[in-house]
Amino acid sequence: MLNALWNPTTVGDIPLPHRLAMSPMTRSRATPDGVPTELNAEYYAQRASHALIITEGTQPSADGQGYPVTPGIYTDEHIAGWRKVTDAVHKAAGRIVIQLMHAGRISHPDNTPHHRQPVAPSAIKPTGTTFTASGPQEMPVPRALSTEEVAATVDDFRRAAAAAIAAGADGVEIHGANGYLVHQFLFPGANQRTDQYGGSLDNRIRFGVEVATAVADEIGAGRTGFRIGPGNPMNINDLSESDSHELYPHLLNALAPLNLAYLHTGAGDEELLHTLRKLWPTTLILNRAGTDIATRAKDIEDGLADVITVGSMALANPDLVERVRTGAPLNTPDPATFYGGGAAGYTDYPTHIA
Predict the structure, then answer these.
(1) Which residues of the chain have pLDDT under 50?
(2) Burial of 333 (0-12, 13-18, 19+ CB in 10 A)
(3) Residue 257: exposure state from Cβ atoms within 10 A (0-12, 13-18, ≥19)
(4) Eight-class DSSP state of 152
(5) In a designed cystine with 296, which of 30, 190, 308, 347 is the match (CB 3.0 to 4.6 A)?
(6) Which residues are CB-contacts of 270 (< 8 A; sequence separation ≥ 6)?
C-alpha cells in the first residue's frame, strides 16, 4: 500500500519526487516585524525531503496578522528573509510554497504592527480568546471592511503572491479554512454583508474566488493552491457550516475553471470529501489528521487523494520520509514547545541517522 506514496507526480508546474508532503503549521518564530530568520531556514531545510513543504500561514498585509511573531510576505525585508528559507530548501533539493493567510477577525490589536482593530466581512465578535505577548485576551469586535477595502484586500493577496515568487518560493497556497478571512466570507456567522460579498452563495464565495483569480493571474495558476477545511473546528466559533454540502461544491465549481495547481483539504465528512474529489479537476492534496501513514497512503491508492500532507509527524521527524521508507520508529512531538520560540521543539528533533 505504501508503494503509492513513492510514485512521482506533478502538481501544477511543480514536479514532485513522491507524494508525502508537509502541512502548514503555525510556528511563531519570525522576528517581531515578521521577518523569517536563519532558524526558520534551518527548520524548513531539515524537512526538504518531503515532496512539498507548505509553510506556516504568512500574512499578506499588516491587517492580515493574527498571532505574534508570525511571518509576513509584504515588505522587502520579508522577501529577503524568505529568500534565506527558499534558498536553503532548494539547496537541499526540496520544493516549498508559502501559505498566504489573512487572519481577519481572529486577531487582536496587540498582535499587529499598526495595533489597529481587526478587520472582517462584518462587525461580528468571535467567541473566545487569542494569545498575545501579554497572555490570552478576548478577541474584539472587528471592523467591517468596506466594499472598496475588500477589493484592496484582494490586491494585497496578489502583491503577496508576487512577493513570494520574488522570494524564491515555488508557489503559494491561499488559506481558505480554519475560520480565517476567506473562510469568514463563506458563512453568515461572520458575513452579514448586503453588498456583492454577502447573502447568496455566489456572493459569499466571491471574495475567495477573486483572491484565487488575482493570485493565479499574477504568478500563474500552476503555482497557486487553495486550502479549504469543511468541518474543521479550529477558529470556527459561530461559523455554522450547515450548508457545507451546497457551499463547497459551489465554491469548487467556481474555482475549477482557473485550473489551479491543487486543492488542499482535510477529511471528516467523507460524503462531502468524495463529492469534492469528483468535482476537482487537478491535484487534490489531503490531510487526514490523526491517522497513520498507511491509512493516509490508502487514500492515494484508492484515488481519493493525489498527495497527502502530515503535520505534527513532519514537525517531530525532520527525516520523516526516510523513516517511512525504512520503517524506522518516529519521534513524538512535544506540544509544550510548539509556539515557544527558539530551537526547542523546532530544529532540535533528532534524525534517525543521528
Answers:
(1) none
(2) middle
(3) exposed
(4) H
(5) 308
(6) none
Question: What is the secondary structure of 163-182 as a DSSP string?
Answer: HHHHTT-SEEEEE--TTSHH
Pairing of strands 307-310, 20-22: parallel
pLDDT computed for residue 172 by the predictor = 99
Phi-psi region of 242 (alpha: psi -120 to 50; beta: other; left: phi over 0): alpha
Which pLDDT does position 301 carry in this prediction?
A: 96
Q: What is the pLDDT of residue 341?
A: 87
Residue pair 78/122 in contact by the 8 Å Cβ criterion? no
Q: Which residues, including other chains, have CB under 8 Å from residue 69's CB and lie 6 or more apart? A: 28, 29, 30, 31, 32, 34, 341
Query: How far apart are alpha carbons 263 and 274 in whole angstroms?
Result: 13
pLDDT of residue 14: 98
User: Annotated active-site positions, please?
Assistant: 180
Query: Residue 73: which residues within 8 A CB-CB, separation 6 or more?
Result: 58, 59, 60, 79, 82, 98, 100, 160, 163, 164, 167
Q: What per-residue string of b and e applies to 107-145 under the rule 16 or more CB within 10 Å gives b? A: bbeebbeeeebbbbbbebbbeeebbeeeeeeebeebbbb
- Report the amino acid identity of residue 104: G
Other CB atoms within 10 A of residue 302 CB: 11
pLDDT for res 134: 87
Alpha carbons within 13 A on the beta-carbon side of 272: 21
End-to-end CA distance of the chain: 28
Cα torsion 211, 53, 327, 315 to 10°: value is: -100
Q: What is the pTM of this model?
A: 0.97
Q: What's the confidence (pLDDT) of residue 2? A: 84
Which H or E run contains 132?
strand 129-132
The pLDDT value given to residue 241: 75
